[in-house]
Amino acid sequence: MTGNQLMFAIFGMLIIIFSILTVTSRRILRSAVFLLFVLVSTAGLYFMLNYQFLAAVQLTVYAGGIVVLIIFSILLTSHISEKFEVVGMKKQIFSGLAAIAGIILTISTILQTEFKATEVAAKEVDMEAIGLSLLNYGENGFVLPFEVISILLLAAMIAAIVIAKKGKTQKP
Q1: 42 and 56 share one domain
Q2: What is the pLDDT of residues 39-57, one digit of tens each?
Q3: Based on the domain organization, do 25 and 79 belong to the same domain?
Q4: Distance from C-alpha of 85 to C-alpha of 87, rounded to nearest angstrom
Q5: Are residues 134 and 110 in the same domain?
Q6: CA-closest candidate to residue 124, choices 72, 56, 52, 69
Q7: Could you say which of 48, 59, 126, 153 is the most buried, measured as most Cβ atoms within 10 Å of its Cβ?
Q8: Do 153 and 170 share a structural domain?
Q9: Is the whole-model pTM more than 0.90?
Q10: Cα–Cα distance for residue pair 46/55, rounded to 1 Å
Q11: CA dist list (Å): 90 to 83, 94, 95
Q12: Residue-number span of the structural domain to which 64 is assigned
């Protein structure tokens, strides 16, 4: 086993383990931290594939921005020691069946796909074109989607705070 294969196996196992911990943890803050580990491990895979820009975006936008926003929202709306309720057996069975169906679909799709090695050399990354696309609001631009998502996240945070504050009654 080569070093790249070993690192891929390590990152893959980290993603699988922390993904399972993310959805099975009863403590909401721990789930958010496990999600952070999943996103950082995914960035590690991108670095292995020499997709440095995508890995940097993964670390800054998702691991650095979204997870911090989630943790901030959790701390504003609930107690750190708060636990989720225990999931019933019926939900566990249906969730397990859905997960098994997803695994079967994914594995069958991978096994049916012919992966061919390419003889074409990798193209050079044009950082100027990427920068212009990120700052452009016209065709092939990304400013408008980023702004829409930021407004959506702000609205979700405000709604979560309003919902959390409604449940608490103030005593004089």
Answers
A1: yes
A2: 999 999 999 988 888 888 8
A3: yes
A4: 6
A5: no
A6: 52
A7: 59
A8: yes
A9: no
A10: 5
A11: 20, 6, 9
A12: 1-84
